[in-house]
Amino acid sequence: MGSSKNMTDLTLADLKKGQQGVIKDVSSAHIPLKLLEMGCLPGNPVELVQVAPFSDPMYLNINGSHLAIRKDTAIHIIIDQVDE
Q1: Which residues contact residue 63 at a Cβ distance below 8 angstroms, ignoring those fewer than 6 apart?
Q2: Which of 10, 35, 56, 78 is 20 to 30 A distant from 25 in Cα terms?
Q3: What pLDDT score was predicted for residue 11?
Q4: Confidence of residue 5 (pLDDT cuts 50, 70, 90)
Q5: Could you tell me if residue 1 is inside a domain?
Q6: What pLDDT does 32 receive?
Q7: Is 33 helix (H, G, I), strand (E, B) or coil?
């Protein structure tokens, strides 16, 4: 966990409504411990359920847990694959 982000890496912030992916890496220095405890960990599936007006916060289904996170936090969560 905590590797540097490449320009080609996709993050949670890149997801569009309804898209799914798998968490690849999490920058634990930028992610609140509570999100890690709620399943925001590498290998867990994630889906963008809804986006609030002005794109913040994002409402996600992460490994069966429903979470709302801010976009500035979402950019630190790298995802591996995206399916529509």
Answers
A1: 39, 41, 44, 45, 46
A2: 56
A3: 92
A4: low
A5: no
A6: 84
A7: helix
